[in-house]
Amino acid sequence: MLPVITLIGRPNVGKSTLFNRLTRTRDALVADFPGLTRDRQYGVGRIGPGPYILVDTGGIASSAEGIEALMERQVQRAVDEADHLLFLVDTKDGCTPEDVEIAQRLRRLGKPISLVVNKSDTTDPMLAVADFHRLGLGDPWAVSATQGLGVRTLIDHVFGLL
Ligand code: GDP
Ligand code: MG
């Protein structure tokens, strides 16, 4: 069985962009409009020490549905399936109330989790991660999904924990 690594986080942080980079596909729909990602997307991760199953937990199913319901489903899936969670946040937006709420839920799961600060191409990587230590999920990993920065290092780290 291949290890299962699951991308989680609020819409628009770059989960699908990272999925596409790690799987070397364009299977996950990337857009500025949250909610376009299909409900759940599976692929084979190809960047890293070995193959793995990558899961992109999509966006919001209906606009009436709040972050609470979205996270309920995402977290449930993550618990059921994942060997490791990648919790993505966005340095452009900084640490949002939704991020704090998601982090609280994730910490309760007791699953291995890495905090990934995406879009670090938009600022100094040191500054990018500084805001997110307060999520209590350890040292954040700065990446740029669009440019591929920090991505291999992140997956190497994850494999070290599998
Ligand atoms: P998702 O909703 O979490 O799946 O986010 P998407 O992958 O659809 O990306 C949302 C937006 O963020 C898109 O416009 C992406 O091009 C952009 N984006 C994703 N990753 C990066 C990144 O590393 N740097 C920058 N500057 N933009 C990014
Ligand atoms: Mg998406």
Automatic annotation (TrEMBL):
<feature type="binding site">
    <location>
        <begin position="56"/>
        <end position="60"/>
    </location>
    <ligand>
        <name>GTP 1</name>
    </ligand>
</feature>
<feature type="binding site">
    <location>
        <begin position="118"/>
        <end position="121"/>
    </location>
    <ligand>
        <name>GTP 1</name>
    </ligand>
</feature>
<protein>
    <recommendedName>
        <fullName>GTPase Der</fullName>
    </recommendedName>
</protein>
<comment type="function">
    <text>GTPase that plays an essential role in the late steps of ribosome biogenesis.</text>
</comment>
<comment type="similarity">
    <text>Belongs to the TRAFAC class TrmE-Era-EngA-EngB-Septin-like GTPase superfamily. EngA (Der) GTPase family.</text>
</comment>
<comment type="subunit">
    <text>Associates with the 50S ribosomal subunit.</text>
</comment>
<feature type="domain" description="EngA-type G">
    <location>
        <begin position="3"/>
        <end position="162"/>
    </location>
</feature>
<feature type="binding site">
    <location>
        <begin position="9"/>
        <end position="16"/>
    </location>
    <ligand>
        <name>GTP 1</name>
    </ligand>
</feature>
